[in-house]
Write a structure and sequence with these properties.
Number of domains: 2
Helix content: 55-70%
Number of strands: 4
Structural class: alpha+beta
CATH topology of the largest domain: Zincin-like
Strand order of the largest sheet: 1-2-4-3
Shape: elongated
Strand content: 5-15%
Largest sheet: 4 strands, mixed
CATH class of the largest domain: Alpha Beta
Distance between the termini: 25 Å
CATH superfamily of the largest domain: Metalloproteases ("zincins"), catalytic domain
Number of helices: 10
Order of helices and strands: HHEHEEEHHHHHHH
């Protein structure tokens, strides 16, 4: 299997940068809120501590949050032996620990992988994918997702998914904190209040765009690398090609429990009216 050493290193660096940016952003908003309520230092210190705690929580439990949001359920070998054996065989071929298997009860043809590293990874597929793909086609999709695990794409995408939700929460919190007011605010905080309201409105408007921009960061190169690695892993490139053709022609591509935060994880965009493969839409 092709091991994209550069991609692994780049994904690790990007994950550190993303976490650092998140903590700085939290500190900034904490300082502004602290200034508004009378103590910039308290707001700054409290927000940074909260940001660090939240980052640690996301890093260790982010994949479980994603699986829960997506409505994914763990399955056993007895329930879905074909899926279990496919994942197990390709994990052995890739030299990885076997990822956990999850199922989403949905007729759409879709799949994704998540986790903080190859030792704590999972692969999720829809029941529609299992029922409509042939064996070699399923192997192609699983091989593609296994490559994301191998290259540490899953860590970066996991962090992106959860932190997109934080941007939305922050915009809502800023708006509510001002619209409902609060006790102990500074008398000269009118201008700061206007700034906070404007920031909250801007974030509320831009949250969907931020999600789209971050999804675009899941680059064409990374998807092509996963395609190439998956093809080498399965030793049958037409399997993935045929699977992608079926996925792109799915008449009902929407995954009911998918949302804007998790959409970029799926092999095919699950929230639009027309199916769009990630590497094709970029």
């Amino acid at each position: 299997m092709i091991i994209a050493f550069d991609e692994v290193r780049n994904n690790k660096i990007k994950s550190v940068i993303l976490i650092s940016f998140f903590i700085i952003l939290i500190g900034f908003f904490g300082a502004v809120l602290g200034l508004y309520y009378g103590s910039i230092y308290f707001g700054l210190i409290f927000s940074i501590i909260a940001g660090i705690i939240y980052t640690l929580l996301v890093f260790n439990a982010g994949s479980n949050m994603i699986l829960s949001m997506s409505g994914a359920k763990p399955v056993t070998k007895q329930e879905y032996p074909h899926l279990y054996h496919t994942v197990e065989g390709l994990a052995v071929a890739a030299g990885l620990p076997k990822p956990k298997c999850y199922i989403i009860e949905d007729s759409a043809l879709n799949a994704f992988a998540t986790g903080k590293d190859p030792k704590h990874a999972s692969i999720t597929v829809t029941t529609g994918l299992l029922s409509k793909l042939k064996r070699q086609e399923l192997e192609g999709v699983i091989g593609h997702e296994m490559s994301h695990i191998k290259n540490y794409d899953i860590r970066f995408m996991m962090l992106v998914t959860v932190l997109i939700g934080v941007v939305t929460f922050m915009s809502d919190f800023l708006l509510r904190s001002f619209l409902w007011g609060g006790h102990g605010r500074r008398r000269d905080s009118g201008s700061i209040g206007i700034i906070l309201i404007l920031i909250g409105i801007v974030l509320a408007i831009l949250s969907p765009l931020i999600g789209y921009m971050i999804r675009a960061a899941i680059s064409r190169k990374r998807e092509f690398a996963a395609d190439a690695s998956g093809a080498v892993l399965t030793r049958y490139p037409p399997g993935l090609a045929d699977a992608l053709e079926k996925i792109s022609g799915d008449p009902d591509p929407l995954v009911d429990k998918a949302n804007k935060a998790t959409a970029h994880l799926f092999i095919s965009t699950p929230i639009y009216s027309q199916p769009t493969l990630r590497f094709m839409k970029e």
